[in-house]
Amino acid sequence: MLCDKILEDRDFGHLYIIVNRRAVRYTFRPANDGTPKVGIRVTVPPRYDVKDVVRAVEQNRTQLLSMLQVDQTAKDKKTETVRIDWDFRIETDCLYISLVKGVGPRYMLHRLPAQIDKDEQGEDIIVKPAVLEIHCPPDCDFDKTNIQAFLERAIVEGIRNYAKAQLLPRLLGYAARYGIQLNEVKINSSKGRWGSCSQHKQRSLLNSKKSYNINLSLFTLLLPMHLQKLILLHELTHTLYMDHSPAFHTQLDAWLGGKEAALEKELKKYTTSIFSFVKKE
Ligand SMILES: [Zn+2]
Question: Quick one: 125 and 103 in the same domain?
């Protein structure tokens, strides 16, 4: 099946007209061509009339739009939940997570901290990522919803431990470098945001120095190192500017060596869920 013609479309981006000898009428399917608008594949019989195809698209526009929507929702759901089983694997800069067939009926966590070195600027270099192995009973039934929920919880808690061990010193290192006074740093499992920053209210009137509380999502640890840096410095920049004003971005961009926009774009590939980091074979 060859694409006979590509037409531009305001809603779908592209209409791919595909001729099929056996087709007796038009059929429409999402093209999934990698563009944000997805595109539509229109299968047509030989000796078709382009104007008639365009007319058919026009007449079916509403249904086609909802077809694309359904297709997109199905795909979103798919990336959101990956089955956790023997093949489940997360391999990021800082942490390797896998399931291991145990011998007994019990679940056990095996942990091995990361080996970390420093570069000339005092920034962390991961020599060897931390390891989190979840040893499961050999007959573990991964089809059970409660087993899936249990394993997800175990993995998240495992990440939380390493996030505390690695993200806190990393953040404090940057804070010290820029002379920023932090009051409290918390690692949470909140979904939807990588971090947040708020001013700490001083009780004492004598102490006028401002200090700040920062919350970091534990999923930040699963990001590549250069994106972790984006998150950490983003929150530290909020200690200087509590908004996302041009001044905020100027400061953050300076700390990131002019790479803020590129890093922000790269960050969009990830979400605050373990399933965003699952290794695909
Ligand atoms: Zn912000």
Answer: yes
The mean per-residue pLDDT over the stretch 242-267 comes to 96
What's residue 169's pLDDT? Answer: 95
CA of 32 relative to ligand 1 center, distance in Å: 33
User: What is the per-residue pLDDT across 18-38, written as a single tens digit (0 to 9) for each?
Assistant: 888 888 889 898 887 777 778
Ligand 1 centroid to Cα of residue 202, in Å, is 22
CA of residue 173 to ligand 1 center, whole Å: 20
> Please, which residues have CB within 8 angstroms of residue 110's CB and are 6 or more apart in sequence?
100, 131, 132, 133, 134, 135
**Å from CA of 250 to ligand 1 middle:** 13
Q: Ligand 1 centre and the CA of 234: distance in Å?
A: 6
- Does 151 lie in the same domain as 111? yes
For residue 1, is pLDDT > 60?
Answer: no
What is the rounded CA–CA span in Å between residue 94 and residue 225?
Answer: 8
pTM: 0.70
Ligand 1 centre from 120 Cα, in Å?
28
pLDDT at 236: 97
Give the CA-trace dihedral at 117, 122, 123, 128, to 10 degrees.
0
Distance 243 CA to ligand 1 centre (A): 7
Give me ligand 1 centre to Cα 233, in Å: 10
Q: Looking at 50, 80, 110, which one is the last position of a domain?
A: 80
In a domain, 281, yes or no: no
Cβ-proximal residues to 264 (8 Å cutoff; 6+ apart), any chain: 230
Q: From the CA of 237, how far away is ligand 1's center (Å)?
A: 8
- pLDDT for 74 equals 64
- Domain of 26 in residue numbering reads as 3-80
CATH at 181: 3.30.2010.10
Same domain, 95 and 190: yes
- Same domain for 66 and 108, yes or no, is no
What is the side-by-side strand order in the sheet with 211-217?
182-188, 211-217, 195-200
Q: Of 58, 80, 102, which residue is a domain's last?
A: 80
